[in-house]
Every structure is written in C-alpha cells, then in structure tokens.
C-alpha cells in the first residue's frame, strides 16, 4: 500500500501523528489559535511498535495512517512515555482493533493506565536505564519525573540514534504539511509557540526539566521525535539549546508592561511608563492589557523578558481581580531572573499598590524602589514621574 497520509522518517520509522484544529483551549486553559498536533510514531519490522498515541478526537485519521503502513498486520507493542490524555485517550479504540497488543511503560504510568482506562493486562514494566529488545529493535528508557507529570519518561533507540522525547521539546501549533524542522520556518512561527508551550505547561517544573536535559546530554542524538511540534532531523541541537535556555529562564533585554484598567486612567499611566522605557534606550517593549490578553501570553512574556512592570487600578480596596489571578499564577511558575516594577491607581480608596507591594515583599522579588500611586487621572507632573520610572527600569535592564 502506498503511503500517502503517514510520513516515513528513517529506517522504517513512520510519523502517524494527527492535527487538532478544533479544540480552542489546551488543557481547558491555554489558547490554541494555531491548533496543536499530537505526534505518534510507528516502527515497522519483526514487531510492529507504536510509540505514544493521540487524543481521542483524532482517532479516525490516526487509525487510517496505521492501516496504511501495516495493512492487516497487527500492532505488537505500544510504548507509552506519558499518560496525559492528549497522548493516550485513543487507547480504547486501538485496543478494540488490536486486543492482543502489549503495553510498555513504567510503574507510575501503569497505575494511571488503570485509573484512566481500566487497562490492567498485557503490560510490560520498564525501569530507569533498562534496555528492552522488541523484535529487531532495542530501546532504552529514561525516567523524567515531573516533566511535567510524575510518570513521564523518554525512549531512546541507539540503532537510529532516535530520542522519542514525549512532551520535552514540544510546542503548540499544527503541522501544516511540513513535518520536519527543515521543512518549516521554525523561527517565524514555531519558536513563539514552543516558548509559550514550555512556560504554560512545563515552566513551573523548569528545575526538573533541566535535570532531564542534563540526563539526556550524554546520548548520541541524531533525531528527536517529540509528541508536539516538528520532528528534529536536520538540527536537533537547536531545540535542545532552546529548551535548555527556557529551563534556565534565560531572559532577554526587554520589558513587558501589564496593566489592569477599568476606565482608561491606568492605561494612560502604562503608556507613559512605556514611553520612558523607550527614552531609556530599550527597544523590545510590550504593553499588555490584562483584561484582553490571555494568561498564556502574559506568563510567556514574563518568563522571557528581563523587565516586568505591573500596574493595577484599585478595586474594592484591593487589586483589580484579573491582576490578582495573574499574581497567583506567577507564584506557581517560580520565576527568578526578572527585574520588577509596580504602580497603582485609585479613586476613593487605594488597595492596588499596597497589595502589589506585599506580593513583592512576600516573594522576595527584585523590585525597583520607585513605586508610584496616582489618584484619578495623572496630571502633567505625575506623567513625567511615570516616564522617569520607565527610564529607571530601562537603565536597570540594560546595565545588568
């Protein structure tokens, strides 16, 4: 049978992943304006082996790709690196078609297989560093706990020097024709989606991700097959470097100003701060309205930009509620390499700046001493102070 839907990768390894253009939010939280792909791989040989599955809503396309490669043959093994449902929820359909298939995974994943899908039979447990021969192929398994679930692992085939890396090295976005890194304009599109994916999904476990990257550093890798995003065959070192930088939260010279404004006064203050950043010599500046911008993009900006300025109006003697929620999420991410600035506004009573100060003090953040609070609409002198505040932040960023 001629392969039209599946894509040959190397030495009878095939790409059989699917695109999801319908789901609006990943994990019910993170926007998918460009969709997402669920990558799965089939190895044909003495034994037919699937590595990682897909989400149930794309099962029909998935099964067609499998049958295109093996016809009426059976699947002998499924290797499950990660139990999250976007990579396993099609398992019921696959087991109906191939009831005798054996599942290869680790102890923690076995418990989740039972919890999610009530699968208890035909399971082979593998441990850290174990090598397993399946037909004419040999695989070695490495545990990568909390990247980003406790059962996560990766699979390495030394013969082809291929790393099946589960969520590590993944990113948002469908694969629109091009499957490999040398078939897409990665920096133009996928780099931003990879950055956002890492920070939204893996960021709070950056320390564990760094440990996993160090563990895999000794492998001779020529091909990286993640479960999201392009397959890396031309320059796998590039995605390794990108993920290492993200895991270390290596910031860039820039500043994001995030403001919450009910009637526009705090917005005017934020624009004055941004003008000061520019006058201070900073070119990479983003201004974000917290009421209109998804948390997904805000967290991504904060992770990558050295400077972060938060400005909030007061709301019932407290912070503007969307700002309060953002602060909760920032705490979860354990960000450590930023310079912070804060300002607030109020009408009949304060609360915003007081609570921003407390948050910075409790978290021991590196925050500028200048912390402005303005009643009502900023006058000429107050706008000058805000511009000076922006200049101060630019100076801190550029002299670090």
Automatic annotation (TrEMBL):
Residues 255-394 form the Flavodoxin-like domain. SMART domains: Lactamase_B. In the N-terminal section; belongs to the zinc metallo-hydrolase group 3 family. The lineage of its organism: Bacteria, Bacillati, Bacillota, Tissierellia, Tissierellales. InterPro entries: Flavodoxin/NO_synth, Flavodoxin_CS, Metallo-B-lactamas, ODP_dom, Rubredoxin-O_OxRdtase. It comes from Peptoniphilus ovalis. This is FprA family A-type flavoprotein.
